[in-house]
Amino acid sequence: MRPMAQVAMVMNLDKCIGCHTCSVTCKQTWTNRPGTEYVYFNNVETKPGVGYPKRYEDQQQWKGGWTLDRKGRLQLRAGGRLRRLLSIFWNPDLPSIDDYGDPWTYDYQTLLAAPLGTYTPSAHSISALTGRDMRVQWGSNWDDDLAGGPDHAAADPDLAGLADQVKLAFEQVFMFYLPRICEHCLNPSCVASCPSGAMYKRDEDGIVLVDQDRCRGWRFCVSGCPYKKVYFNHRTGKAEKCTLCYPRIEAGQPTICSETCVGRLRYLGVFLYDADAVLPAAATADPQELYQAQLSVFLDPDDPAVAAEAARHGIPDDWIDAARRSPVYALAVRHRVALPLHPEYRTMPMVWYVPPLSPVADVVSAAGYDENDPDQVFAAIDALRIPAEYLANLFTAGAVEPVQQVLRKLAAVRSMMRSHQLGQPWDAGLAAAVGASPADLADLFRLLAIAKYSERYVIPLAHEEDAGSLAAQHEQLFSQCSLDGEGGPGMGGQGPPSSVASFHPGTQAAGQTFRDAGGQVRFNLLGWDGSGDAPHLFPEGGTP
Q1: Structural domain boundaries, residue 509
Q2: Would you place residue 478 in the very low, low, confident or very high pLDDT band (cuts 50, 70, 90)?
């Protein structure tokens, strides 16, 4: 056993309202330079839908992630070193800009410089990449909020095999939102695909990053990632991706997408896992058993033997304590209501999801049944608008039973709390039927519904003795490892903040503002906890 620590995230899809606040604040915090018009490392998709790039989940076309060779050994789906060497100057598995949607803006100068006349001038669309006129035909979130409309949803790879069950008729339509970031996998195929060794996974917290000084723009990481969460910046010639806001994580703060999430659906915490068990688990022959295989990799932080071994391998005591209090461990392992996204890619993703649950009580009541009857509540799971088979294609490689177990447990929580709120009797057998106790269901309700800030985000501070002098690192953070300067991480630039203290809320007001390269005073959203004013967050007069 070789214990290691991994910072991970769980998202409760029942709470996502598709507001895209996470995407906006992520981009506002981490990108302020040319070439970021199409940053896709944080987005919210409508499911069913094709996502972006188009049909990114179809690995028969894009060949991302891992597969097994004839001897049952892991190999990149895109092929070995020889195949990648032969395609290094022309990668057939790389999505084109048309698959993402050419980013565009409008020719506003036409409006500003148009002479007086009878006709009202209009601003036409131009490419943000080339500056040429273009006709907009596709873009990110093009099928947003279409609720599985037949024009686009039929191309959703997760609907494969459900043609008879999902008719996409108006009266049967369903949809939910799927927020996505980099999965920071235990077995990342993007890292293995990089010819220059620029991508790496940090030992101390498992965050996957790109060393921009070593990146040569080969873009094999883009095609190697099955989730397509690595993108190529055409202005800088470098690959970029979600960094899980590692400066904030090191300072014990949640990611900016978690901090600003309107629905409070994101949970951050620490897993302890056995590094020696990762590859055998990822090489599990049956794809439908990969979910259980990944669960077997996680270690119980309450086990004294695990804690002792983790300490012996250099994991600090406060990290072990954080693993015990981790909400992601509670949701994914203890209660088993969170599921990984596409485990069949064999990357062992570390961003997990609580699947959405339709209003079960309404379904049962509409049929004239007693919502406290376990048999009737569980039978209603099969009648939900969102088919369990569709969720299984997303989260368990097509295995329906684990998804049904999660939905039943969530339904039991709703039934119990509904009875308590209305003062009605409740059958404790409903909890036993889902393999839980009433106390377990009450704890699950607390986590999913009313958890406080400190319970949703359990993030231990980074240790200087393990990662070097953090003060020195953060003094050079935005000149060496930031997404602020020209060229992105490692390419220079001056930006916020200049010290570890700047990341902590409640410090002096001067620590919350900075001057950009043009001398403009701006607000440091990265270190803001939401309290107090936010001066200089928006332009305050003058020419932008």
Answers
A1: 464-527
A2: very low
